[in-house]
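Technical annex, item 7. During the second reporting period the consortium partners agreed on a shared format for inverse folding records so that results from different sites could be compared directly. Each record opens with the tokenized structure and is followed by the designed sequence. A conforming record, contributed by the partner at site C, is shown below for reference.
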């Protein structure tokens, strides 16, 4: 196990190097640049600075590969993502400031999604081709076909028009009032979680059906074991390995969904920070947030891989 973890951690190095180059270059291919955004803002209209002066002050007057090397040197030698082009604050400080909201939103969405997907998927497989199975599969298809941003927009507009109610638009820090903080992220988490639950439920149902047809399950039934024991102890545990893999594959989609959801519900998380920086062409912030998301996905997928031996003792890492 230790050797496997070391190998995976070593593989992070080339992966993060390639990812850093992608996120660094991609944002610079967007039409317009940081100077255009700065000149158009009120903070810079009062300054008597031309474009060349701004480029030189911000270090954007050198070739792109030199900018990339300077950025990498800052990360490797100083442990920093650099400073924002729009203010005198470091990128990592702003990431740490916004991170708790994104973690709260993501963890709550995953918990909600699993609480919906796993029981419904197991029940749908056990009751295959019954009315309840058809209902569950239909709802899952609707969940897959419904965009999160469209559902979030409906939740923001129609309850306000019909009942005069709207989700909270001001985030309360979890450390100040946990219940109010969870209430503020409940509706966004439900929207993200139900979208995640749709695919996970279908996968859970498929894997449960495959496991229920195995010989050892028929043997357990023939021994007279209770149905709950056969389903939960023997079938579910073995069916969860592909499901856990599927959850790991959905994490990047969850990250992408949080960018839209945080902006719709005005949640001050990393998704909102990334979009604001993208509109301002704030290259260090966009690159830093995307690289941070990439590192988080790599680490979470490693954790998911380490869960496999606990679900199936036959899995061994060397």
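Designed sequence (site C submission):
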């Amino acid at each position: 196990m230790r050797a496997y973890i070391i190998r995976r951690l070593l593989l992070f190095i080339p992966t993060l190097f390639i990812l850093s180059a992608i996120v660094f270059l991609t944002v610079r291919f967007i039409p317009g640049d940081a100077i255009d955004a700065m000149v158009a803002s009120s903070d810079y209209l009062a300054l008597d600075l031309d474009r060349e002066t701004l480029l030189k002050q911000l270090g954007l007057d050198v070739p792109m590969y030199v900018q990339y090397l300077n950025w990498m040197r800052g990360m490797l030698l100083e442990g920093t993502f650099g400073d924002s082009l729009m203010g005198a604050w470091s990128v990592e400080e702003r990431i740490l400031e916004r991170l708790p909201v994104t973690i709260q939103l993501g963890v709550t969405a995953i918990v909600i999604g699993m609480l919906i997907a796993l029981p419904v998927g197991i029940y749908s497989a056990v009751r295959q081709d019954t009315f309840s199975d058809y209902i569950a599969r239909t709802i899952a298809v609707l969940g897959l076909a419904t965009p999160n941003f469209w559902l979030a927009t409906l939740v923001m507009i129609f309850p306000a028009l019909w009942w005069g109610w709207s989700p909270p638009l001001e985030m309360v820090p979890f450390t100040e009032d946990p219940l109010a903080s969870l209430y503020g992220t409940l509706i966004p988490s439900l929207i993200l979680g139900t979208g995640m639950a749709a695919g996970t439920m279908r996968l859970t149902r498929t894997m449960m059906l495959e496991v229920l047809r195995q010989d050892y399950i028929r043997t357990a039934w023939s021994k007279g074991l209770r149905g709950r024991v056969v389903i939960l102890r023997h079938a579910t545990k073995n069916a969860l390995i592909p499901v856990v893999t599927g959850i790991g594959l959905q994490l990047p989609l969850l990250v992408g969904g949080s960018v839209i959801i945080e902006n719709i519900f005005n949640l001050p998380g990393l998704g909102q920070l990334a979009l604001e920086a993208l509109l301002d062409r704030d290259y260090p912030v966009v690159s830093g947030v995307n690289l941070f998301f990439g590192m988080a996905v790599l680490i979470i997928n490693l954790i998911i891989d380490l869960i496999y031996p606990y679900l199936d003792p036959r899995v061994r890492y060397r």
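The chain has a mean pLDDT of 81. The chain has 13 helices and no strands. All partners now use this format for quarterly exchanges.
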